[in-house]
Amino acid sequence: MKYIVSSCLLLMHFFTINAQNVLIGIQNNPNEPSIAINPKSPNVLIAGANINNCYVSLDTGRTWKSQILTSSYGVWGDPNIIVDTSGHFYFFHLSNPPQGSWIDRIVCQKTTDNGITWHDGSFTGLNGQKDQDKHWSAVDRRNNNLYVSWTQFDTYGSSNPKDSSNILFSKSTDAGATWSTPRKINKFAGDCIDSDNTVEGAVPAIGPNGEIYISWAGPLGLMFNKSLDEGNTWLYYESVIGTIPGGWDFDVPGIYRANGLPVTACDVSSSPNRGTIYINWADQRNGSNNTDIWLTKSKDGGNSWASPKKVNIDNTTTHQFFTWMTIDQTTGYLYFVFYDRRNYTDDQTDVYLAVSVDGGETFTNHRISASPFVPTKNVFFGDYTNITAHNGIIRPIWTRLNMGQLSVWTHLTTLNELLTSDHEIISNDNDLSFENYPNPSKNLTYVSFKVRHKTKINLSVLNAQGNLIKKMIQNETRTYGKYIEQINLDELNIPNGLYFIKLEMNHKIKVIRQIKI
């Protein structure tokens, strides 16, 4: 979009990380950020932000140097950063050429020296007076092919029923030097208003054998198409894989505009979920005051799709919005970043990181922003966040507003820190009293809890990944009183390390971290 100035139920709690927030950039009113880590050299990350901001880190995101990206084709927002198999980074963006039309093509600029210099750029999509917008790209790591998909508007913003929007696809087989003639991959067009009835949000994902999967949003809901021959042919008709109740264009208080456009990713790791396609989006199916983050998945190449699961695991009626997801392809673990207001009754906004280590079946939620901020509608906030991950290094990126000043941030997160962080319960029920001692423990630990009303109790021991080790109490009815239960860690035959003890009572859940030494 254009720049405008039993698996465990560990999912019922969130973690609060000791915030290691790092300021990436504050100059030039940055927003709508993108970020990528180099798998060949994970200390190198490059990020971008509207409208022409570029940032480079050579120390896994701890410090950053900023620069202004220039091109003879113009640089006009929608930044998208990817890295290829040679460790070369690409910065895709919209155009604003001095000779030509505004947003008349999708531009790709490349650096082979970690952002010290950038090529002037190649482009795709130039098509007379038509407008090219909201692109995203991907790399096929088998052959280093580059793929990009986007929305073409006959005339951006037009309400003329003769004008339409369509999804285009192009590829480069020579590391971004040249691009194939774009081809339309949708049959069901949208309008040009840039709202619910526009087809938009095309994000490509690459499968283990080079399959190309793309989903987008439109008047029919979540749409999906695929190519099994490197983009040469596509399904004749795209499929409708689900609805978007309330549409993909919705209101969030304090946000100039908000959207729930889908993000597509595919697991190409060696995990048990290899080949699974995931689509992540946001919508207001639970009401206009209750935006939520969703995930669906397909394990058969997009022929069938699982029922959506909610990624934000709170029980509040608040807004979670601007989601993005990625997969750590060394593990198959899923990571999501989004804005979240579960802790407030006003427009104060946190940033959360969600993690799934079991293929999108369950999620943990981690508050990663050091403090909340309050956006305002008169400051354009961008249309997305972004996140990258490799080998347990997770680097989300987001926009923040303080005292009228926009800035972009990341968080120094590793998988181990997420799994071992202190945590809280999302429930406001203070009656859920639960303690354990000693902790750490060599063998025996005791848990105590109070029951104030007759209820069913479940008490479980989980490993560090949230998987069930043993149910110590299963659906037992307990009456009023205080209870103390002994857990013999040695009898569970578990090695030293981190574990969780989970209590379920009155449809509330509390989890305590337990260390065995």
The CATH topology of the largest domain comes to: Neuraminidase
The total count of helices amounts to 1
Strand content: over 45%
Largest sheet: 6 strands, mixed
**CATH architectural grouping of the largest domain:** 6 Propeller
Supply the number of structural domains.
2
Short description:
By secondary structure, the chain is an all-beta fold. The protein is 1% helix and 46% strand.
Give structural notes.
The protein is mainly beta and about 525 residues long. It folds into 2 domains: about 10-425, 6 Propeller (Neuraminidase); about 425-515, Macroglobulin (MG2) domain (Immunoglobulin-like). The chain contains 1 helix and 40 strands. It has a 6-stranded mixed sheet with strand order 25-26-27-28-1-33, with no helix packed on it. It is globular, with a radius of gyration of 24 Å. The N and C termini lie far apart (about 55 Å). Mean pLDDT is about 90; it is low at about 1-20 and about 420-430.
